[in-house]
Amino acid sequence: MVSEVPITVRKHIVDLDKDVYDYYGPRGVFLVHRTQQDHRIPRHHAIYVDTGKLIETERFQQKLQSYVETEFARAPDLILGPGHPRATRLSALLAERLHARFGRTIPQFSHSNLFFEADQSGHELPASLARLTENNEIVIIDDAFVTGTRLYQYSQHLRYIGNGYRGRVRFLVAIARPSSMSEWTEARRLLGYRPRLSNDGVSPERNTLDAMEIVVLPNWGYTECPWCIEAGKLKTYKPEGVEPPALFADRQELLDRQSLAGGMGDQLFLSPGSRLPIHLAGGSLFTADKSPSTAFASVAGGLKRLRTDPDEVRLGPHRYPLATVLESKEYLKTVYTDSLLRASFFRAAHKEELQYHDPDKEKQRTIYAEELINDESGQINNLALELLWATVEEKLPTALLSKISDERSTELGIAEEAQYVKNISRSRGPI
Ligand SMILES: [Zn+2]
Predict the structure, then answer these.
(1) Across-strand partners of 138?
(2) Distance 341 CA to ligand 1 centre (A)
């Protein structure tokens, strides 16, 4: 017997990150489906945080200012960062504020990982580090903390420079966006460690890891990005002898293009141009910002916290005999009544977090979805195509497809598209 526990999104979970979305959302900091190309290997982010924009805001600069005022008892000996434009800018801002506070110009260096060949002569950075002692202090900066890979590399390679750097390190990032708060806590613990310097029993001051902003967000690349998945399905499932309707052909073109052209702030969801756009009427529990990409990020982040924050029962994959499933009534009927939030739930939740084990509850879920499609209000029925598409990703029962009449699809201006989604589902198996 499977024990099914309905999971609801509670306000105190969402409130943990809300002010970050409220402030940075309207400033265009949160985008989706973006390939970042200034690394050696391009990296795709389902949710992209534009740290270049974030660093320029007043809120960020004030936080940096107070960090410099409260954390530093003396000027550090150098600042080091990875050298991409956003890190270089952060390094310059920090150096400027340290100069204002201590009247000293702090040398700034850039290196991607601090790995040097055996012969370190001829490099200014290893020479500078080798001159420092256990009483010195350096700052290592980066624009974002995702998993901490780069900071761990820096920390490790510092041991091999000269006779090994033994001074204190302050790690500082503009924003930490770990997949869970426990990953962040663990990073602070690991990077904070400094070996005892001598046998006198005195522990040295720990290293520090600080972030000016923190949000919990899923770290999704190509394989988990909802828009990469959509583009992949549009490419893979081509019903035989049927040309895709213009909406889907355009959609595939848009998704391919925007991934490389800076990501997407809107047009996140499937909706015919003739219908009311899928947007937020006002703010939401998740964020006061109305932009689709911020709303999506805040929902995805909220669900990620539900999966990872310490609690009695967490949202997540079925672990027999326990199944934790999002309470369908909340996102399809009573609580989240904006199409944009509903669409975000479908895109951000995994299918096993939406599907009930109990067939009767799945029937009820189908009825809720059907009611939305048949609703008279254009603010509600504009979700129709997105709901039909959810069946392709197995996030709603395929039974929904046969419940929507051709007349209704025609009224909604999605007759061709609905038929195409049915064909895709048929090509995958019986409806
Ligand atoms: Zn993507």
Answers:
(1) 78, 169
(2) 19
